[in-house]
Design goal:
Elements lengths: L13 H15 L2 H9 L6 H23 L5 E3 L3 H13 L3 H20 L2 H8 L2 H23 L2 E4 L3 E4 L4 H18 L5 H13 L40 H26 L11 H18 L4 E3 L3 H6 L5 H11 L2 H4 L8 H15 L11 H16 L3 H18 L8 H15 L1
Antiparallel strand pairs: 1-4, 2-3
Helix pairs in contact: 1-13, 2-3, 3-11, 3-13, 5-10, 5-11, 7-10, 7-15, 7-16, 7-17, 8-9, 8-15, 9-15, 10-11, 10-17, 16-17, 17-18
Length: 431
């Protein structure tokens, strides 16, 4: 008889896992350049943040594979880096070294919550219907990111969003999307990676033979790493009482970004044990806490689980080998970061859009006729892409679940931990 702790997934195939890890890396490698471009606004050196970003991504992802044995990549989180730069450092006037200290201490709290199983209890308190909504919402979120990166969906003052003009870049994306869709339909192994490569090749003429802007840029091969931010955090200054809201904001936002990403990806990819819980949940959450902790030490905003992991899972990744491969692929770019410019955003956009297809499967499991469950699941699903925040989606899913259960006379179905989560959700909305 299968033990509850055993995964339900089949034995991994090495070739498939390598392809999956490569697909995840290609979908998420933008963070190597994007993270330092955001954090440099605080006065932190671009080259040093780039090195820190690579180290956090590599060490965290490899640790996820070795210790938690899950195909989930970690890296400095988008949204968290903007909060670090624009809200904490520039908005509140907190020195960046002190902000790094706040990241470190939030990671230590994460670690304690994970080691003592409190974060595991939090995951287990998340109603399954909300999990299904979160999984689908993350899929829609990834799709929106891909469509926005391609220029197919743009801001519109009259309608909030709208379709972009059919520029050469957008037409190239559409061609890449069509090719990738055909490869997936034909069940070709490595379809998403092949789609990224083919779209990159199609993008080479942009800015050279047609189109106004060059998409595939060659900026050389070599760039020396910069380790100057390692250990530059302010341990003591970040413990001031006035900075508690900053530590709490990092703690709450990172916690629910990572929890909801982890739960959503596990649900969509069927990475669950015999009890229906995410596989190796405690170990995975410890790794996530480790990622945030070393981010402060190495010189970056908090590390977290990445929704782009769904790209590798869609490619067949089911074990820690996928995460290990992803982490290893980050390391050479400490020296080869200029090569990243050869893969434009429109080349990874088709893969991101198509991941939404895979992650919509849990929608079938939502009890659409039970409104006190369907409404919270629906809110979680639609608010994640519409607010551009996984945290906002899950917060409003939690709060609406609790309120509707109370009015239905089913307050007894609300786990004690969910009441605590609701309290912190309200606090997070007020901070």
């Amino acid at each position: 008889m299968k033990k509850a702790s055993e995964p339900t997934n089949p034995k991994p195939d090495l070739r498939t896992e390598i392809l999956a890890g490569s697909a995840t890396f290609l979908a998420a490698m933008y963070i190597i350049v994007v993270n330092p471009s955001i954090l440099q606004n605080t006065g932190m050196p671009f080259s040093a943040v780039l090195t820190a970003t690579i180290l956090v991504s590599a060490f965290s992802s490899i640790f996820m594979g070795l210790y938690a044995k899950n195909p989930i990549m970690l890296a400095p989180g988008m949204g968290l880096n903007a909060f670090f730069a624009y809200s904490v450092v520039l908005g509140m006037g907190v020195p960046w070294a002190t902000a790094l200290g706040a990241v470190f201490w939030s990671g230590i709290i994460f670690l304690l919550l994970s080691v003592f199983n409190i974060r595991t209890l939090i995951v287990q308190a998340i109603p399954k219907q909300i999990r299904f909504g979160v999984a689908a919402g993350i899929g829609l979120f990834i799709t929106l990111i891909g469509l926005a990166n391609s220029g197919f969906v743009v801001h519109n003052d009259a309608t909030i969003v709208g379709r972009g003009a059919l520029t050469p870049a957008v037409l190239t994306f559409l061609a890449g999307f069509a090719l990738t869709s055909v490869l997936l339909t034909l069940r070709v192994k490595g379809a998403l990676i092949a789609g990224i490569v083919l779209t990159t090749v199609l993008a080479i003429p942009l800015g050279r033979f047609w189109g106004a802007e060059t998409a595939v840029n060659w900026q050389g091969v070599w760039a020396a790493p910069d380790f100057s931010l390692i250990g530059r955090l302010d341990f003591i200054g970040s413990l001031k009482l006035s900075l508690f809201p900053v530590v709490f904001a990092f703690l709450f936002t990172d916690m629910f970004d990572s929890l909801s990403t982890f739960v959503g990806v596990a649900e969509a990819g069927d990475l669950k044990d015999a009890d229906g819980e995410p596989h190796n949940i405690k170990e995975s959450l410890i790794v996530d806490a480790f990622s945030t902790t070393i981010s402060g030490l190495l010189g970056s905003s908090p590390g977290t689980s990445y929704i782009e992991s769904a790209v590798g899972i869609a490619e067949g990744g089911r074990s820690g080998i996928t995460a290990i491969v992803t982490g290893i692929l980050f390391l050479p770019f400490m020296f080869l970061s200029p090569l990243l410019s050869t893969v434009p955003a429109i080349a990874t956009a088709p893969a991101l859009v198509l991941v939404g297809v895979f992650m919509m499967k849990p929608v079938n499991k939502i009890h659409w006729d039970v409104y006190e469950e369907a409404i919270p699941a629906f809110l979680a699903m639609v608010l994640i892409p519409l607010t551009y925040s996984i945290t906002q989606g899950i917060i409003w899913g939690f709060l609406s679940w609790t309120i509707l259960k109370i009015f239905r006379g089913k307050a007894g179905e609300i786990p004690p931990m969910l009441w605590i989560i609701d309290l912190f959700s309200v606090l997070a909305l007020l901070v």
